[in-house]
Design brief:
Shape: globular
Oligomer: single chain
Pfam families: GUB_WAK_bind (PF13947), Pkinase (PF00069), WAK_assoc (PF14380)
Protein name: non-specific serine/threonine protein kinase
Distance between the termini: 72 Å
Mean pLDDT: 75
Main location: membrane
GO molecular function, one term: protein serine/threonine kinase activity
Organism: Durio zibethinus
CATH class of one domain: Mainly Alpha
């Protein structure tokens, strides 16, 4: 009997001893080994004469973990490092790792004749990782200038390209600090901006532009890691910077290696010995009881869970409860993303018209492949839209799987374009958007935004390009890629500014504090667009009025409403329209206050717009005039009248929000500005 017990004991103990011995050698080897990430990212890479290292990495030569997302470059002919930006390819001429900047120029050389054919465009900088130095100069190309320039000798010296042969397409080129820029812009109706950093060297305008400019990067500083003996890299699983060290990855820098090595050797030898003692005692005490108990435990827990399979299957047919579309079906619906089916584009993707196999007309957003945060934007928009249901918010029909070849979002198709299209775009026609339609657009948009704020969501990109219209001119607010959930127990969220130039809350831009009042400011710009028919940013306006918010505040302070409100709406000829548009201008003025505390809430804005539209508006006004001594209810504010002396003093003392022209790098791109901190 004892022999049987001994045999059973040995049969139980020997596998354990084998395991412990194996663990000992494995741990000892592991303690002495150099981390794989450190080894891989230690290999030097060059392209031409440049040393390529973090944050840059060469495609097909570097491991992606050795660089920062969005800084992948290609090495053309083993001589030219090429960086792709949204507006085209750029050659990296030099890299200054110490101050995190690099010198770039267009891969396709600039020819001054290009400006006449409109074949060049503004540079589009992904501001989540790059920015122009504050002192960077720029050249303004003013296009389609008036033929009056033939008589203006002062401006003739600025003509470039084809201007000499074709006076009907006069093009001027001026530096951003040229005193003649404002004067010249009054004669031209379009502008393009090219940042420049190397003025000396000859070659005229072409030479200056082709010598390129300097960009700074925002990626994590690598100097601390390198000084500690590590190699910089990026962990895509946690989406954080890592310092790859000989022992393991660290957050910022390596720790002294000798102390770690002794500790590891001690652990590698001591731990297996301790394990042997503990397991031996355990086995001797438990013997057969342990064996049988373990067997019973395993048998009791290996029964299959029928829900696990169904959960796995459902993950391929639904995303946050939405239907999953196959990539092939959406390629077919858009005729392989035909350019003729393109509806528009923005900071995160291009939208195409499509028709599904079941006959439904849809709008399909194709997220940019170069945007390394597209997955986060994809999930953000899906998660927010699936929790919201409102008649004035665009409906999301479904999306592709996260493991699909591309990330695609499928929305309901809104056929009548955007408010921007109808106000000052391709669909702008005199009389097409009457005042009753415009006030309805304002109310429906305010209703949607008030609903978002009540749901603890900030839109962050309120603009007329994101307000869609159906055939009945009903509003559908779209584009939630920048939106943020806003916890109801905090006053603001700290995040790097994002949005579209001309609409961004100046306090958000200065203090990096996002609140619901940031949407209120942007909606104030929308209100001014509705009453003026002017775009939020227009380079052809006077320098101080390029930003529509600046223009509006200036006109309202002077009570020059006739210089702000579109006369085609009936301002000045229709008493009711005049009173209503003036009241909306005053409401917009309150929304555009520099300090967020001075702005009304979105609910208050909605209440005021409904009061302006209501049939009782006129009678209320007359009643207030007849009973000037009576108390005015808090929910009803008096209609606008010319301000008295105290009011005028208050208006003049208000600070104007900064014009985007004051910072060249912040407005040269037409698209929404994404940011890494989102």
């Amino acid at each position: 009997m004892n022999q049987i017990h001994l045999f059973n004991l040995k049969s139980t103990l020997f596998p354990v001893l084998n395991f412990v011995i194996f663990s000992y050698f494995f741990l000892a080897r592991k303690a002495l080994a150099v981390d794989e990430n450190f080894t891989i990212c230690s290999v030097p890479r060059t392209c031409g004469r440049l040393n390529i290292k973090f944050p840059f990495f060469i495609q097909k030569q570097h491991e992606t973990r050795c660089g920062y997302p969005g800084f992948n470059i290609s090495c053309r002919n083993n001589t030219d490092p090429i960086l792709s930006l949204p507006d085209g390819d750029y050659i990296i001429r030099d890299i200054f790792y110490q101050n995190q900047s690099f010198h770039v120029s267009k891969a396709v050389p600039f020819d001054s004749d290009d400006v006449c054919s409109n074949s060049i465009g503004n540079i589009s900088i992904p501001e989540d990782r790059l920015y122009l130095p504050p002192n960077q100069r720029a050249i303004f190309f003013l296009l389609n200038c008036n033929e009056t320039l033939q008589l203006t000798w002062e401006l003739s010296q600025y003509k470039v390209g084809c201007a000499a042969e074709n006076e009907t397409k006069t093009t001027l080129a001026l530096f951003n600090d040229d005193p003649m820029l404002n004067f010249a812009s009054e004669y031209c109706n379009k502008a393009m901006v090219a940042p420049v950093g190397f003025i000396d060297g000859g070659g005229g305008v072409e030479g200056i532009v082709n010598r390129g400019f300097v960009l700074n990067w925002i990626a994590s500083n690598c100097s601390i890691c390198e000084a500690s003996g590590g190699n910089c890299g990026f962990d895509y699983s946690t989406y954080h910077f890592k310092c790859f060290c000989p022992d393991r990855p660290h957050a910022w820098h390596c720790t002294p290696g000798n102390k770690k090595l002794g500790l590891k050797l001690g652990l590698g030898i001591g731990c297996p010995t301790l394990i042997i003692l503990i397991l031996s005692i355990y086995v001797f005490r438990r013997r057969y009881k342990q064996k049988y108990t373990s067997s019973n435990f395993l048998r009791g827990n290996t029964s299959s869970d029928p829900s696990s399979k169904s959960d796995l299957e459902s993950s391929s047919t639904a995303c946050f409860g939405l239907p999953i579309f196959s990539y092939g079906e959406l390629v077919e619906a858009t005729n392989n993303f035909d350019d003729e089916k393109e509806l528009g584009d923005g900071g995160f993707g291009t939208v195409y018209y499509g028709k599904l196999r079941d006959g439904r007309e849809v709008a399909i957003k194709r997220l940019y492949q170069h945007n390394y945060r597209r997955l986060q934007q994809f999930i953000n928009e899906v998660e927010i839209l699936t929790r919201l249901r409102h008649k004035n918010l665009v409906s999301l029909y479904g999306c592709t799987s996260r493991r699909s070849r591309e990330l695609l979002l499928v929305y309901e198709f809104i056929p009548n374009g955007t408010v921007a299209d109808h106000l000052h775009g391709d669909l702008a026609q005199s009389g097409s958007l009457t005042w009753p339609i415009r006030i309805s657009i304002a109310i429906e948009t305010a209703t949607a935004l008030a609903y978002l704020h009540a749901s603890d969501i900030i839109h962050r990109d309120v603009k007329t390009n994101n307000i869609l219209l159906d055939d009945n001119f009903s509003v559908k607010v779209a584009d939630f890629g920048l939106s943020r959930l806003f916890p109801n127990d905090v006053t603001h969220i700290s995040t790097a500014p994002q949005g579209t130039p001309g609409y961004v809350d100046p306090e958000y831009h200065q203090c990096y504090q996002l609140t619901e009042k940031s949407d209120v400011y942007s909606f104030g710009v929308v209100l001014i667009e509705l009453i003026s028919s002017m775009p939020a940013v227009d380079i052809t306006r006077h320098r101080d009025e390029i930003n529509l918010a600046n223009l509006a505040i200036s006109k309202i302070q002077k009570c020059a409403f006739d210089e702000l409100i579109d006369p085609n709406l009936g301002y000045g000829s229709d008493e009711e329209v005049t009173r209503m548009t003036t009241s909306v201008a005053e409401l917009a003025f309150r929304c555009l206050q520099q300090e967020k505390e001075m702005r009304p809430s979105m609910e208050e804005v909605l209440e005021e717009l409904r009061r302006v539209q209501s049939e009782d508006y006129k009678s209320e006004s007359e009643q207030e005039e007849e009973h000037t001594d009576s108390e005015v209810p808090r929910s009803v504010q008096p209609p606008l009248s010319p301000p008295n002396g105290d009011q005028i003093a208050m208006l003049k003392n208000l600070r104007l929000p900064p014009s985007p022209v004051s910072v060249t790098g912040k407005w040269i791109s037409r698209s929404t500005t994404p940011n890494a901190s989102g």
